[in-house]
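To: structure desk
From: M.T.
Subject: fold request, one chain
Message: Could you run this one when you get a chance? Sequence is below, nothing fancy, just the single chain.
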Amino acid sequence: MGGPAMTAAGFRALHGIEELGVVGLLEVLRHLPRLFGLVRDLADQAIALRPDVAVLIDVPDFNLRVARRLAAAGIPVVFYVGPSVWAWRSGRVAAFRQVATKMLVLFPFEVEVWRQAGVDVSCVGHPFLDEIPARAVARRPRTVALLPGSRRSEVRRHLSILLEAALRLRQHGTADRFVIPVAPSLDATELRSLVDQSPVGPSVELVSSGIDPEPRRTAVQEAAVALVTSGTATLETALLGTPQVILYRVNALSFWIGKLLTKIRFLGLPNLISGRGIAPELLQSDLTPERLSAAAEEVLSNPAPQASALLELRERLGPGGAASKAADLVMEVLSRRLSPTSAPAQSGPGSPR
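Reply: Done. Structure tokens follow.
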């Protein structure tokens, strides 16, 4: 299972990653039969191929179920991106310890919790450090980037609020141009239709570039401020050096349950990594067009503190080279499996798979 970028690189996707585009505890419940079927199908097909190693990327709760079946079949499992056990549901480390041959994490502060649990863990750093080099750019002072999320469910929850906030910013004379970088998982035509229903629609430009992230990143980097749905996009925006306001909304009960289970002060990755609120966060009932536009105006009036904190954040993340480090560690697992002193590989003669 993979996305368009993996497919373009030659990956044979039996299922598209968009099949997992469900967010929220309650929202997942109605999709459980389909998701369990997807686990069985992926695991069965993988086991039939008899790979020498399986690399499961992110999506921890889903991939844990796949991993259990693979591990039971004697296939080593490498998790690339660990679940956020440092933030919530720390008891999951026991379940991952049972099936993980190797755990690769993105942030240095994640290592200790896995190591204490007896998991073979290495920090490889975040791929964004290589993909987004530090560089100066000329900002467009009256341009605001709007990032409603990469899933249709997130767009449904956030787009109208973002557009109403944009309208208020235009009415206040704060901004007159807005850009929406369209995630490759979204339909640009459908998104354009939704945007055009808003009075601010003519002032909104959609930047759709397929699997090439550069045009979308340039659009964000040129903006004076970005209004960003919480997720990986917040870190991407931070490394681009663009001041941001972080926003998110889910089903009210899902949010309440999640709040009971979490032990973190912040939701946005820049704030989590920095350990302080460098970017404003507007969540759930706090997320209104009025508050969002006001937060954007406050950042625009004094962007220097956040800009300075974003430079420190890059240093906190350490050196780059995540992809190469991850590949080397996967090959280490593979070498141990194929070494003469280890048990014979179950995939038969020929090259590793």
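Reply (cont.): The chain has two domains: 31-125+321-338, 133-316. Let me know if you need anything else for the meeting.
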